[in-house]
Amino acid sequence: MAEFKILITSQKGGVGKSTVSANLAAYLCKQGHQVALLDFDLHGSSSKWLEGAPPIGINIHHEPLPLEVGGTRPMNEAKQKLRRLCYSNDIVISDLTWSDSVTAELLFEYDLVIVPTSVSEIELNATSDFLERFRWVFESTLHRAPRLLLSPTRVQNDQLMDTSLFKQHFPFRLILAPAILEGQSARQMYKRGYLCDLNDACGASFNEFGGALVEAIAMISQDKAQVANDGNSRMKALLKLAAQYEASLKSVFH
Q1: Would the pTM count as exceeding 0.90?
Q2: pLDDT tens-digit map of 146-162
Q3: How many structural domains is the chain composed of?
Q4: How many whole angstroms separate alpha carbon 65 and alpha carbon 39?
Q5: How far apart are CA 213 and CA 58, in angstroms?
Q6: H helices within 145-200, ranges in order?
Q7: Nearest alpha carbon to residue 190 among 12, 8, 18, 13
Q8: Tell me, what DSSP letter sits at residue 113?
Q9: CATH number of the domain that 123 lies in?
């Protein structure tokens, strides 16, 4: 497949962002993809998870962004690191805790943006407010907009997904992923293994999440290919018109 870039981000910790980043990288790697994890966070939780777990071929990169320097340098560095990894990997997954130092234009570098959230009323409101700030990115017609996926995480059995709840909080276009269940086994897998290998409800829910992601990646990749083909067709048509115009000028002046 052509390169595919995923950003997993949230404005706060404790919602399972690094867990999703590390374990999605593992899931996709086990599906036969060449996967890189680009961990932008200072503490490097997702990269530490993968470095401690049994190696399965994931390219792990912990590259904290120098957000304290301000200006355009951190974002330029992030884009360069991301693009370099695309040369040797099918899929690059970035793990980033969002802050006011990060510019929204970085989102346009990605094909898919995944935002994990718990299902508490407070967290859903906070996530909705966070995403509303970037609604213009996901609805852009001037640039190729990334697709937005909301990922309910650390969900208890009695909180299983109620889609009407999410429609109420997120009245804009997004993909809603299957819920990832809470489980003590998930905490025990940190730096030891992967959620997709768990033989319990948590593992089953993560594999359902991973399967949905694979379908989303295929759908978005197909859309990208169609846009690229349309662009090539338009370019060929313009070149043909230019050639015809040049030929007509020659016939007039010769």
Answers
A1: no
A2: 999 999 999 987 776 56
A3: 1
A4: 9
A5: 18
A6: 163-169, 184-188
A7: 18
A8: E
A9: 3.40.50.300
